[in-house]
Amino acid sequence: xxxxxRPVDPAVIRRAAAEAERSAFKSALDAALxxxxxxxxxxxxSLGAWQAWRWATASPAFALQQVRFNGxxxxxxxxxxxxxxxxxxxxxxxxxLPRAARQIESHPWVADARIExxxxxxxFIDVREHRPAALVQLGAMYVLDEEGKVxxxxxxxxxxxxxxxxxxxRELWQLRRPEMQLRLLAALxxxxxxxxxxxSVAQLSEVRLDEDGAFTLFAHDGEDLQEISLGAGELxxxxxxxxxxxxxxxxxxxxxxxxxxxNPARPDQAAATLADKR
Length: 278
Prior knowledge:
The structure is a single chain. This protein is α/β, with parallel strands linked by helices. It folds into two domains: 69 residues, Ubiquitin-like (UB roll), CATH 3.10.20.310; 143 residues, Rossmann fold. Helix content is 39%, strand content 26%. The strands form two sheets. The protein has a nine-stranded mixed β-sheet. Strands 1-3-2 form a three-stranded mixed β-sheet, covered by helices on one side. The protein starts with 9 loop residues before the first helix and ends with a strand. The model has no long low-confidence stretch (mean pLDDT 85).
């Protein structure tokens, strides 16, 4: 059984097309109105923010009244304030904080500086200074920090009571800097081991870096300066042996001017050169 095909009424097609066109136009109009509304709101907010910024950057209410430093041990507040370029009375929103931090970090003692605004008119500056671990003889005397960085030339005003590392000439430092840097790190490790066995770093006067990677130390034992041949390896074992040997000599009322702990075959043994009894 077959049915006859019935053509669609052209009027129905026209009505459907018109309805689709009206719907599309309405959707487009709604989208355009939403976009215009958003743009108007954004413009209003931007204008408001710009006006608020103009007011804040011109208002005396936000004049810089206080600059407070935290973490200073060697650098002075006056010195850092002068380097920073900050001035009391400056608008707190106009100051260039990254630039001021960089200029503070140009001070030889300053490793890092972070600046925070505290409304209405204060800046808080947290300073991390280099922590001196030793002096290094490189022709002149320089300061070595705990991270192994030679960061400044030493001056009497520094007032540092730390060991002196010797054995690196200025020429060696300039020609073989990476290798010499590793040797300085090894010297810092030695200081850690020295503390670890209960010895005071204040007793340690000099750490000499010998050419073969060994260490020779000059340390105070009471009022006497003692030379200690340490060698290159088994540092913890050797320094514990040093503590034992000093204690044994003290019990006998004797002193040693030199102690040799560099016995590769028997690192647990030591030899001493005794001082004349007084």
